[in-house]
């Protein structure tokens, strides 16, 4: 309408509303007819002029005047029609806020007292309530207290055949049922039975009514009381029959919402244990499995498939893991048991109660195919917000030291550089102790096809049913063959003058053997004849020869002979005597890119359906154990038809392998020693495979609720055949990878007291390219304790007269392994007092790594740092001149050696022990903290402390730091500005890294202190030692989603590069904090140009980041002028 007509219409409506208001005040029954006439005129104006003409003056607010004084008048219908004028959610909200809901419910109650009630009035009232109810949070309570709830139920019972009135009544009932008390009350009043009278088999009639009925029934069944009532009245088979019938007849899929409504009812019933049992008894698994399988080709039916999948997974009978106990298969006796905590609980619990199947009703809805990584991060973000420290006293540094200096003086011997006069030379590194036990390498359980077959080294362990193993049948003992066990003492690979292998071998006393009977040889020359002679001597025995790949040029820090020497002094709880092939011969990073795997649509659903098939067709399942560490005398069970598994080597973790189908295996990981959980790290060997066969591997006892395996991460594989062909490397592999909740129940004891928790399955498929290959699979790139010792010894050999490097033994671990402590800096240019003084007064940087054994990427980053520090580049030389580095490269050697994921031999997470570490149970943490306390006591606290870690659920590399201000900003703490005074220098180093390191993401960094992290290294060093720049640097296990490496999985090359870039960032930090001191050195001009070049290379990757100068201008006030100049 034209503006002038709208104005005239609005004026008339205002005039009529004014008349109604006067009638409202007078409230005289004689004016009822006048009221009816006025409302009729208003309705006519609204209908003829449209909503737009009156929306600014009428709304729902004035309607109150039409309804309130005339509940028993003759003109309610006109008023209701005015209310029924179309309006958006905002106008409904206004109506609710003005009390409109109560008036409508009162009208329902008063209208029900008429005999008979006006059908037209009830129809319009319930239509209005269906619109208004969802907008009123107290709608259900108001209806129950008002009595309208019973009115609607009675109306429903009396009008089951009146579909016109039935529909709005059901719509209102659906809203009523959202209130749990109402739902129980409605169930007692027989509404469940009413719903089952309305719903039924396939019909083309009244489909809208059926849809609303199912929605109402679904809302009622959210109540456990109603769900039990439905089970008792045998409604579960009825629902399954109805679903089957609609599935069979709805061939054109026009009524998907009705089918989904039936599934919604089943979903709610099966939230209780009785419902799940009734579903199984009614053959629900088979019915939903068959109907879902038939729906798979139609993409639009995915909602039905996903809901069916969720119901089936929920109803899959809960089982315990196929283990005698969930405690670790290995045990280490502690010097004393802690007074409290999970370890004490583990030691004190009775036998047989550690793994009880729990089928409580506290089942979380399992994740669906539509779960996204961002949603998972949002959950993590909310959890972190609840975890933020709110006690401001715990966010301030401690004023006094917790230990007297007399106690700390014993640590002076680890800081010789602070008193070194360089008159008598630098202290040499102590030699590692040696062991004489035999070492077998590698653990090949099968032979490459290009070599003649040799007899197995150890006795076959396949036992007939009921047969007892022979006492001598042990994986660590040789079979009764003519030749004795050959140890690696016999290996002697000679080097030429250039330091490379000369492809010849001096004949040892015995040929070195692989565990599968393969002799190690450096292939070629006259010594091939020797190998043939050995083969003839050992006819029918260990005569096969395996070539050693030449990796000396590509891996300058790797030496197989040296590695074996290191293994001999490594102590493990299982007393490993085998060496894994990848650790022995090393890993050369591939030159090709490994992209983050794009997830195939529906892969998780497919894997789940294959799992459900096991329940439906149990006769198809082999359920054959092929590897079992719980049978200590004979873990490998070889029948010649199945894959062979092994994990009995350093850092190995695989407890049990069960062949489920011909090419499918369920794998169970071992708990951390002295623990009953922490299943994530795996490292095992597979052999005896067939080329081209579609193998599927399921790791069935994972614990975390989500994993990067759902977002493109692949497992790592090392092929012996590829290695001897000149490609010794770990590669990302596997297809159809996903991670999902399974039907194995987690004991509440292992789940921190939480009930109803399940384990998760990580599954992947792959085909092997080489017949009878020996392949190794790992969670991430393995880096063993023996590898560290080898690298440290090789690094020490690189030391030049200009490098000060000292290796001390900080302490001995619970398992008897030594924890190395490194000191690296530059030698003083002379022994003059000035140079010695400058040397001693260099700021300290304290680095640590690998407190969590499963985070092997932390060791690769540390390797990059150490190689850079010992390098010969001008940057490395300047960095050594700038700082004294104190480095503990492996805080948890025992956990690494024994294949743990999180804990040490004490069964505890060492990175939660920093507040009060025990010298007996946590020696590495106790003594590392003592070093820092000593430095604080002599006023030499480190400038930077950084603990290297790996992150399993996020991408990129990033840092966690500590900030009082940023923590307070995330909470409701009220604090004055003086209380929050804080130098922003803690942000400088991460910011530098974001501009230098392609894998580093500033956006992922956080400087908030959480309660759950108060006992971590980062927080304790910040609060107790007073180190402002105290960090945890997290490296992804998956890959990057930003920068140069966006879309790529991370490898050892990128991780080592990150370690080197961290060093460069420290040099840049030195320039920013001590500019004048460094500018006195002319050779730093080269360093500066190198830095500029480095920054230019990554500048294009950081367009979304602010310039570093913006941050640094907010840094320490003393450098403001210098920063402006630069």
From TrEMBL:
Keywords: Carboxypeptidase, Cytoplasm, Hydrolase, Metal-binding, Metalloprotease, Mitochondrion, Nucleus, Protease, Zinc. It is an enzyme of class 3 (hydrolase). GO terms for molecular function: metallocarboxypeptidase activity; zinc ion binding. The lineage of its organism: Eukaryota, Metazoa, Chordata, Craniata, Vertebrata. This is Cytosolic carboxypeptidase 1. The keyword Transmembrane helix does not apply. Residues 355-378 have a biased composition (Acidic residues). Belongs to the peptidase M14 family. Its EC number is 3.4.17.24. Pfam families: Pepdidase_M14_N, Peptidase_M14, TPR_CCP1_N. It is found in: Cytoplasm, Cytosol; Mitochondrion; Nucleus. The active site is at residue 1034. Its cofactor is Zn(2+). One of its GO terms (cellular component) is cytosol.
């Amino acid at each position: 309408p034209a503006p002038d007509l709208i104005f005239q219409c609005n004026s008339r409506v205002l005039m009529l509303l004014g008349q109604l208001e006067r009638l409202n005040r007078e409230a005289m029954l004689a004016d009822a007819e006048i009221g009816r006439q006025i409302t009729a005129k208003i309705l006519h104006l609204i209908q003829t002029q449209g909503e737009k003409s009156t929306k600014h003056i009428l709304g729902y607010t004035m309607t109150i005047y039409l309804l309130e004084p005339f509940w028993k008048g003759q003109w309610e219908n006109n008023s209701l029609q005015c209310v029924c004028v179309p309006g958006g959610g905002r106008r409904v909200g206004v109506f609710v806020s003005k009390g409109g809901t109560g008036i409508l419910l009162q009208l329902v109650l008063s209208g029900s007292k008429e005999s008979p009630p006006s059908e037209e009035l009830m129809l319009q009232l319930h239509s209005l309530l269906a619109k208004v109810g969802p907008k009123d949070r107290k709608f259900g309570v108001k209806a129950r207290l008002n009595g309208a709830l019973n009115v609607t139920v009675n109306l429903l019972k009396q009008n089951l055949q009146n579909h016109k009135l039935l529909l709005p009544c059901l719509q209102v009932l659906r809203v009523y049922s959202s209130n749990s008390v109402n739902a129980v009350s409605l169930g007692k009043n027989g509404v469940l039975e009413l719903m089952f009278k309305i719903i039924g088999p396939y019909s083309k009639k009244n489909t809208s009514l059926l849809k609303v009925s199912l929605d109402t029934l679904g809302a009622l069944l959210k109540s456990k009381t109603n769900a039990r009532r439905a089970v008792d009245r045998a409604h579960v088979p009825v629902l399954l029959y109805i679903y089957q019938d609609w599935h069979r007849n709805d061939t054109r899929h026009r009524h998907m919402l009705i089918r989904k409504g039936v599934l919604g009812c089943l979903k709610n019933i099966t939230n209780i244990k009785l419902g799940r049992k009734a579903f199984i008894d009614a053959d629900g698994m088979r019915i939903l499995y068959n109907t879902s399988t038939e729906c798979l080709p139609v993409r639009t039916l995915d909602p039905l498939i996903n809901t069916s999948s969720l119901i089936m997974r929920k109803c899959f009978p809960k089982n315990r893991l196929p283990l005698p106990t969930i405690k670790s298969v290995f045990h280490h006796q502690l010097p004393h048991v802690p007074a409290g905590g999970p370890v004490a609980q583990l030691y004190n619990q009775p036998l047989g109660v550690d793994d009880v199947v729990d089928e409580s009703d506290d089942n979380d809805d399992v994740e669906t195919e539509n779960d996204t990584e961002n949603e998972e991060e949002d959950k993590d973000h909310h959890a972190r917000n609840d975890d933020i420290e709110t006690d401001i006293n715990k966010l301030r540094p401690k004023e006094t030291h917790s230990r007297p200096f007399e106690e700390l003086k014993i640590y002076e011997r680890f800081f010789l550089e602070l008193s070194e006069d360089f008159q008598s030379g630098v202290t040499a590194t102590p030699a590692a102790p040696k062991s004489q036990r035999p070492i077998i390498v590698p653990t090949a359980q099968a032979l490459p096809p290009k070599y003649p077959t040799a007899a197995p080294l150890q006795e076959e362990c396949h036992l007939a049913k009921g047969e007892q193993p022979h006492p001598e049948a042990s994986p660590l003992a040789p079979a009764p063959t003519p030749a004795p066990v050959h140890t690696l003492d016999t290996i002697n690979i000679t080097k030429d003058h250039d330091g490379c292998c000369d492809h010849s071998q001096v004949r040892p006393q015995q040929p070195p053997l692989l565990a599968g009977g393969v002799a190690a040889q450096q292939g070629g020359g006259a010594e091939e004849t020797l190998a043939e002679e050995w083969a003839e001597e050992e006819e029918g025995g260990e005569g096969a020869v395996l070539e050693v790949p030449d990796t000396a040029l590509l891996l300058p820090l790797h030496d197989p002979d040296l590695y074996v020497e290191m293994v001999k002094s490594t102590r493990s709880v299982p007393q490993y005597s085998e060496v894994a092939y990848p650790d022995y011969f090393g890993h050369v990073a591939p030159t090709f890119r490994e992209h983050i795997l794009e997830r195939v649509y529906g892969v998780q659903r497919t894997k789940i359906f294959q799992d459900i098939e096991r329940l439906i067709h149990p006769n198809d399942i082999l359920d054959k154990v092929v590897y079992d560490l719980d049978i200590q005398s004979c873990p490998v069970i070889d029948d010649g038809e199945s894959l062979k598994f092994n994990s009995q080597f350093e850092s190995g973790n695989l407890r049990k392998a069960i062949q489920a189908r011909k090419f499918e295996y369920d794998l169970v990981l071992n708990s951390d020693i002295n623990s009953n959980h922490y299943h994530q790290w795996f490292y095992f060997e597979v052999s005896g495979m067939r080329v081209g066969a579609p193998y599927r591997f399921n790791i069935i006892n994972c614990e975390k609720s989500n994993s990067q395996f759902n977002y493109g991460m692949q497992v790592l594989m090392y092929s012996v055949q590829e290695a001897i062909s000149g490609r010794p490397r770990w590669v990302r592999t596997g297809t159809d990878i996903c991670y999902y909740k399974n039907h194995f129940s987690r004991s509440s004891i292992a789940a921190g007291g939480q009930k109803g928790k399940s384990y998760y399955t990580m599954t992947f498929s792959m085909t092997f390219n080489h017949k009878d290959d020996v392949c190794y699979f790992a969670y991430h790139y393995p880096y063993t304790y023996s590898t560290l010792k080898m690298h440290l010894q090789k690094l020490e050999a690189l030391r030049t007269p200009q490098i000060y490097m000292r290796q001390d033994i900080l302490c001995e671990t619970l398992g008897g392994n030594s924890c190395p402590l490194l000191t690296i800096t530059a030698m003083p240019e002379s022994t003059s007092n000035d140079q010695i003084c400058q040397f001693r007064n260099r700021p300290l940087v304290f680095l640590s790594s690998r407190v969590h054994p499963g985070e092997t990427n932390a060791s690769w980053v540390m390797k990059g740092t150490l190689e850079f520090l010992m390098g010969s580049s001008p940057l490395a030389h300047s960095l050594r001149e700038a700082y004294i580095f104190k480095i503990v490269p492996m805080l948890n050697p025992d956990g690494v050696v024994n294949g743990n994921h999180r804990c040490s031999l004490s069964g505890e997470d060492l990175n939660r022990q920093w507040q009060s570490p025990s010298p007996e149970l946590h020696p590495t943490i106790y003594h590392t903290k003592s070093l820092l306390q000593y430095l604080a006591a002599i006023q030499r606290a480190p400038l930077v402390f950084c603990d290297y870690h790996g992150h399993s659920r996020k991408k990129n590399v990033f840092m966690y730091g500590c900030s009082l201000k940023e923590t307070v900003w995330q909470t409701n703490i009220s604090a004055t500005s003086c209380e929050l005074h804080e130098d922003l220098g803690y942000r400088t180093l991460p910011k530098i890294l974001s501009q230098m390191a392609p894998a580093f993401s500033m956006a992922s960094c956080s400087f908030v202190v959480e309660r759950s992290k108060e006992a971590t290294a980062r927080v304790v060093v910040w609060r107790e030692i007073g180190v402002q720049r105290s960090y945890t640097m997290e490296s992804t296990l998956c890959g990057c989603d930003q920068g140069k490496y966006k879309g790529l999985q991370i490898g050892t090359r990128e991780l080592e590069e990150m370690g080197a870039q961290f060093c460069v960032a420290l040099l840049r930090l030195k320039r920013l904090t001590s500019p004048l001191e460094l500018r006195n050195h002319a050779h730093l001009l080269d360093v500066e140009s190198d830095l500029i070049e480095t920054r230019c290379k990554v500048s294009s990757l950081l367009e979304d980041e602010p310039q570093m100068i913006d941050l640094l201008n907010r840094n320490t006030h003393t450098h403001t002028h210098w920063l402006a100049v630069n």
